[in-house]
Amino acid sequence: MSTNSNNAAIVEIAQTASKFASSIVLQADNKYIDVKSILGLFTTLVASQNYELHVHGADAENAKKAMSEVFAKHGLKFTVVEE
């Protein structure tokens, strides 16, 4: 993944997440990143990583769907954790 496409992914992920009231947290290994934080994403997001998305809140179902679409669009590997 090139830096430019990674930047585009980060911006789109953060913008998409900020549309929702739900808490959306990305887990990578033992790190937890609020996906509304562009800085957190910049230091964490790499294409080869497998991520877990944890979504909690009133609009969690819509947030999961939207976030899944953005992650898939950018070729990122993830699973949505159902809790």
Main traits of this protein?
single chain; 83 residues; alpha+beta; Histidine-containing Protein, Chain: A; 4-stranded mixed β-sheet; 43% helix; 27% strand
What does this structure look like?
The chain is α+β, with helices and mostly antiparallel strands and 83 residues long. It has one domain (3-81): HPr-like (Histidine-containing Protein, Chain: A), CATH 3.30.1340.10. The chain is 43% helix and 27% strand. Strands 2-1-3-4 form a four-stranded mixed sheet, with helices on one face. The longest helix has 15 residues, at 3-17. The chain starts with a helix and ends with a strand. The mean pLDDT is 89.
- CATH architecture designation: 2-Layer Sandwich
Task: Bin the helical content.
Answer: 40-55%
Low-confidence stretches: none
Order of helices and strands: HEEHEHE
CATH top level class name: Alpha Beta
Rounded mean pLDDT score = 89
The count of DSSP E runs of length 2 or more, i.e. the number of strands, is: 4
Number of domains: 1
Main sheet specs? 4 strands, mixed
The rough form would be described as globular
Radius of gyration: 11 Å
| CATH topology grouping | Histidine-containing Protein, Chain: A
Portion of residues in beta strands equals 25-35%
Number of helices: 3
